[in-house]
Amino acid sequence: MRRIAVVPGSFDPVTRGHLDVIERAAGLFDELHVLVVHNPGKTALLPISQRVSLLQRSILDAGLPGNIVVASWGMGLLVDYCMEVGAGVLIKGIRSQVDVAYETPMAIVNRNLAAVETIFLLPDPANAHVSSSLVRQVAALGGDITPYVPPAVAAFLQKTRV
Predict the structure, then answer these.
(1) Is 132 among the residues known to form the active site?
(2) Rounded Cα gap, residues 80 and 123, in angstroms
(3) Burial (0-12, 13-18, 19+ Cβ within 10 Å), 150
(4) What are residue 37's DSSP bridge partners?
(5) Of residues 42, 49, 96, 133, which has the active-site annotation?
(6) Angle 97-114/78-85 helices, nearest 10 degrees?
(7) Torsion, Cα of 45, 87, 114, 110 (10° steps)
(8) 42 is known as an active-site residue
(9) Distance from chain centroid for Cα 10
(10) pTM higher than 0.85, yes or no?
(11) What is the mean pLDDT of residues 135-151?
(12) Which end of the chain, N or C, is more open, meaning fewer C-beta atoms within 10 Å of its C-beta?
């Protein structure tokens, strides 16, 4: 039986912290779906199609394993996507106690709805302070985002001045 997991996120934009979690999760499962989802609580910087494209490029450039599938999911429950692809596990990167408090109720509901378990992965300490919202803020103010994002993301954001 294939072990399939899903790493969901807005990835707006993808960061080095995201890639760290994706790489480690890919080593634990036979197939890993990195799923760009719409977060109704956030105003997106990039359209979903652009986030998917930047994720695909960043994963390829980083030389991550070939068992990674990048997809998007616009509407419906996350567990519906999990059921569709046969995934029994969600992977969530956790940077702090704030993330734990936010993610725990969702993990319980996902388990109750569809028997989908959630695994929390801690970040590499070098990336523990990095978030997409921080990257967006630094980029908007003209700061150097290259330490926080993959080269493809930095180049795209610098070129488009988003």
Answers:
(1) yes
(2) 27
(3) buried
(4) 73
(5) 42
(6) 60
(7) -40
(8) yes
(9) 6
(10) yes
(11) 94
(12) N
Q: Which of 10, 16, 18, 92 is catalytic?
A: 18
> First CA to last CA across the chain, in angstroms?
44
- Asked whether the predicted pLDDT for residue 75 surpasses 90, the reply is no
Q: What is the bridge-based pairing of β-strands 89-93 and 117-121?
A: parallel
The band of 143, judged by pLDDT with boundaries at 50, 70 and 90, is very high
The pLDDT value recorded for residue 162 is 61
Judge whether 16 counts as a catalytic residue.
Answer: no
Question: Which is the catalytic residue, given 10, 16, 132, 136?
Answer: 132
For 52, the token pair is 């998917």
Of these residues, 24, 53, 72, 95, which one is catalytic? 95
- Strand ranges (E), 57-135: 68-73, 89-93, 117-121
CA distance 162 to 70: 23
CA distance 51 to 37: 10
Q: What is the pLDDT of residue 36?
A: 98
Query: Which tokens hold the place of 22?
Result: 């994706």
State how far the Cα of 45 lies from the Cα of 61, in Å rounded to an integer. Answer: 22
